[in-house]
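Data card: per-record layout.
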Amino acid sequence: MNRCSWPSDDALMIQYHDNEWGVPVYDDQKWFEFLVLDAFQAGLSWKTILHKRENFRKAFNDFNFEIIVDYRSDKIELLMNDAGIIRNRLKIESTISNAKAFINIREEFGSFNTYIWSFVDRKPLINHWKSMSEIPVKTELSDKISKDLKQRGFKFVGSTIVYAFLQAAGVINDHTIDCFRHSQI
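The structure for this 185-residue chain is written out next.
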């Protein structure tokens, strides 16, 4: 069975690739989880984040944006001392401000899901890459969404992070054409 090369031989990465990466997301809770994880990935490997995902889930109240928006300095200090996550104050604080911006989008559009899928007319973009080296790290679409998210107050949403976010959440299918998941998604 052929799959994209990036999971390598890591069992958790393979499981994530085979079952989750590129599967279209329609649930706001999952959207926020991906926003948080991709923001923490900035400057790090996805493998590092994926192996800490359950620690992030516990530390950030199961990625519940309605709880996170009310985090105060005592919770930030607890998170700064949590060795199970990435202890970066700017990323922790951005998670809180991103929760507020996320809620604002929900109020304006009815859901974050409606907002994000509107950029692609509610249809996943399906690419046909032969190798991982062909896959871009950002595109005009990720530039556009990044700019819009920043204008709405989001942090750690540069175009490269947004592109990874769109891939993970199935807005863009970037499985290579020889990967068994390309045709399944």
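Known properties of this structure: Strands lie at 125-126, 172-173. The chain has one domain: 26-184.

See the next section for split statistics.
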